[in-house]
Amino acid sequence: MITDTTENTIPVVVKYDLVKDKEEIFLSMTSLTVSEFDDLSKNFDETLKKRKLKDGENSESNKNNGGRPSVLNFTNDKLFFILFYLKNYPLQETIGFIFGLSQSRANYWIHFLSGVLKETLETMDFMPKHTPLELLDKLESEGKQNFSVDGTERRINRPQDKEEQKKKYSGKKKTHTVKNIIIIGNDDREIKYLSDTVEGSKHDKKVIDESGVVLPEGSNLLQDTGFQGYNPEGINIIQPKKNQKEKN
Fold first, then answer.
1. Backbone dihedral region of 66: left (phi > 0), alpha (psi from -120 to 50 degrees) or beta?
2. Are 121 and 113 within 8 A, CB to CB?
3. Residue range 167-181: mean pLDDT, rounded
4. Sign of the torsion angle spanned by Cα atoms 54, 57, 60, 64
5. Does residue 51 have a pLDDT over 50?
6. Of residues 26, 12, 39, 22, the one with CA closest to residue 80
7. Residue 162: helix, strand or coil by DSSP?
8. Which of 226, 215, 225, 221 is nearest to 236 (CA)?
9. Closest CA relative to residue 205, chosen from 180, 182, 226
10. What phi and psi values does residue 223 have, to the nearest 5 degrees?
């Protein structure tokens, strides 16, 4: 949150116009460049107009936030809010404080705008595929390109059940997580494939082995050492070597 040091002033909430000219910060907050954001915003706005917004949103927001005006009056601010949430995954109380919203309003906007964004990405055919056949069909229609594969983990609350605690515990993150495997196009930075969500203790290579993913023959696939041994036929694997421990 950015605050004005002048005495008796209202804290300044984060919004699109405040960071759009700070390219590195904008990218770190949303995972998009400003140009990419603006392209997405046009389609997001069309989807948003098809949705009926909740009655009295502005007056309710003002009432719950001590009279401060909502920063989510404009399409760019709405898109910036949901991208910031999905990139950083803060607590609802935290993102509400950052954007000048109560926790209940933050909760409403998260659920509402997540649906709008999902529908927008589906319309633009940007949603990642979930089955090997869908993925192969998409990639073959796009032509030859290079890919990267990686695992992404998200922290969860510690399960109550001891067996679930063991399954969800990630030795890499030293906490309880769930994970997905993603395949990304290196040129267009588009997520091509998203695996099912699995427990954090499951090895990346095992997840992709079980997924049955097939890439077009001759593709180059960049992967880290977490996928050591994954070498599908007809695919050129690019992988850094593991560091060897020095022997005394």
1. left
2. no
3. 90
4. positive
5. yes
6. 26
7. helix
8. 221
9. 226
10. -140, 155
Please choose, from the candidates 80, 78, 106, the residue with its C-alpha nearest in 3D space to the C-alpha of residue 93: 106
> According to the model, what pLDDT value does residue 70 have?
58
Q: Which of 106, 190, 211 is nearest to 146 (CA)?
A: 190
The domain segmentation of the chain, as residue ranges, is 16-123, 132-230
Tokens 């917004």 label which residue?
53
Question: How far apart are the C-alpha atoms of 187 and 102, rounded to whole Å?
Answer: 40
How far is the C-alpha of 65 from the C-alpha of 69, rounded, in Å? 8
For 182, other C-beta atoms within 10 Å of its C-beta total 16
Q: Please give the model's pTM, rounded to 2 decimal places.
A: 0.61
- Strand 198-199 with 169-170, pairing: unpaired
Q: Which of 71-75, 135-139, 152-156 has the lowest mean pLDDT?
A: 135-139
Tell me the per-residue pLDDT of 61-99, one tens digit each, with 9 for 90 and over.
444 444 455 579 899 999 999 999 988 888 899 999 999
| C-alpha to C-alpha distance for 107 and 122, rounded to whole angstroms | 23
Largest separation between any pair of C-alpha atoms in the chain: 71
pLDDT in tens, 16-50: 999 999 999 999 999 899 999 999 999 999 999 88
How far apart CA 99 and CA 146 sit, in angstroms, is: 38
Interatomic CA distance for residues 200 and 176, integer angstroms: 7
* 5: exposed, middle or buried (Cβ count in 10 Å: 0-12, 13-18, 19+): exposed
Two structure tokens written together for 133: 């056949």
